[in-house]
Amino acid sequence: MSGELTNILQNKSYLCVINSADKIYGTNNNATYQINWNDFLPRDHEAYKLGFSAQTSGMNVKDTSSTFTITSIVGNTMNVNWVSGMICAGQQIVSNNSTTTISGSFNATISGNLMTISGSVTNYICVGATLTSSGTLTGTAITGSISGTTLTVTIAAVGFNLVPGVVIAGSTITSGTTILSQLTGSGGGIGTYLVSISQTAASTSITATYNYNITGSTITGLQSGTQNTSNAVYTISNSYNQLPSPITITSSYNFSLGTTYIVSGTALSSSGSGSFVISNSFYIPGPAIASSGSVVYSGARLTSNLLGRSYSFDTSNKGTTYTLGVLQRDIQTSSSSSNSYSAFYLNFPPKTMSRPNQNLITINFYNSFNNQLLTDTSTTGVPLSDMAPYTLMLEFTPINESFNKIQTY
User: What is the pTM of this model?
Assistant: First the structure.
């Protein structure tokens, strides 16, 4: 007995020529075409090799670069002041420092996982910042008496609330007595309180203390108010008992842009300020961060979604869209415009694919630099709304039934 391994492609292939003008809807860079596969491809073959070649025409793309200062980022809106060059969509943003530390100092009250700012803020509070504050809060000029486990307060401290966890001390009060809850009254002032130790204590002057430590908590979001201003309420990562009085807190946020691109916004090429939508979200009210941006049009990634075949998968985009290959720009200089992108036949190995079962195909072109849909630019580099027309040829070569078949005899 012997074995023979065969891997035979049928001699005949089928060529589909797609012109961008023939799309049924969409834009040139995101176009859907209708093709009757049943009339075009043999029905007795389930698997094909898919190759391509493509050429654009009359295109104009120009690389750009810019320098600017980021004055704030709120969500995915970035506000900038122009320094030089042209700031426009598609540019990758790079901070002059890979990591910028943004610090703040402020007074705040804390109850549960809510932090409310009291008064003005020195520098900046950022969502994501780590908080540092610990110490002992003290309240004086309090007068009260205890009968059993009930503390009656007749004179309250100014700026210090009697809250659960506060330890009270006085000449007639048992050491270690702690307030557990308020029974009558409100706001931690005059009223009655449940305490931890049963005793009889005549009316006396009371000193109240409270130890706290919130170091290591982080700001997780802005719940209400205006960021970086008095009375703004933030959520924090840990929950605490209500504090008796405001505490002084410092915050530190290590800000890194990572891989962030300008998605949209009116191009800015002269002195002034502007706002742009960016690809990632941050909450940075300041300070000004020196940055630069650039976009390069060196290559265009071509993808194809044959639709309907949910079990066909491409790991490069984690979906049913095939990455066919990359078209190269004809001129590779940052100071010159390009006229075309092209990919020659068999520049890239053919893809193995299942026979389409829907009469639609979607074609996309992406700028390889920033993975955004490819567009033409003006002669100065401002991105336009779509790309130039193109011709795309798809070659479908049936894979013989004997593909990878072992015959024994």
Answer: 0.72
DSSP state of 276: E
Look up residue 403 and give its two tokens: 């593909």
Stretch 321-327: mean pLDDT, rounded?
A: 88
The candidate with the shortest Cα–Cα distance to 189, out of 160, 149, 228, is 160
Closest CA to 32 of 16, 49, 18, 47: 18
- Same fold yes or no, 64-99+256-295 and 135-213: yes
CA 323 to chain CA centroid, Å, is: 25
**CA–CA gap between residue 366 and residue 295 (Å, rounded):** 13
User: Which one, of 214, 238, 227, 213, lies nearest residue 113 by Cα?
Assistant: 238
Backbone dihedral region of 258: left (phi > 0), alpha (psi from -120 to 50 degrees) or beta? Answer: left
- Tell which CATH architecture fits domain 64-99+256-295: Beta Barrel (2.40)
Residue 403's closest CA among 3, 41, 2, 5? 5
Q: What does DSSP say about strands 167-169 and 191-213: parallel, antiparallel, or unpaired? A: antiparallel
Measure CA of the first residue to CA of the last residue in the chain; give whole Å.
6
List pLDDT tens digits, range 286-297: 778 889 999 998
Domain boundaries, the chain: 3-62+297-408, 64-99+256-295, 102-133+214-255, 135-213
Residue type, 4: E
**Cβ atoms 302, 364 nearer than 8 A:** yes
pLDDT in tens, 73-92: 988 999 999 999 999 999 99
Dihedral angle of Cα 154, 155, 161, 166, to the nearest 10 degrees? -70
> What is the dotted CATH code of the domain comprising 135-213?
2.40.30
Pairing status of strand 191-213 against strand 219-224: unpaired
How far apart (Å, rounded) are the C-alpha atoms in residues 87 and 25?
A: 31
Which range among 24-28, 296-300, 306-310 shows the weakest confidence by mean pLDDT? 306-310
Contact 296, 343 (CB under 8 A): no
Compute the distance between CA of residue 149 and CA of residue 194 in angstroms, rounded to an integer.
6
- How does DSSP classify residue 20? G
Q: Which two tokens stand for residue 392?
A: 């795309």
Give the DSSP per-residue string, 362-382: EEEEEETTT-SBP--B-TT--
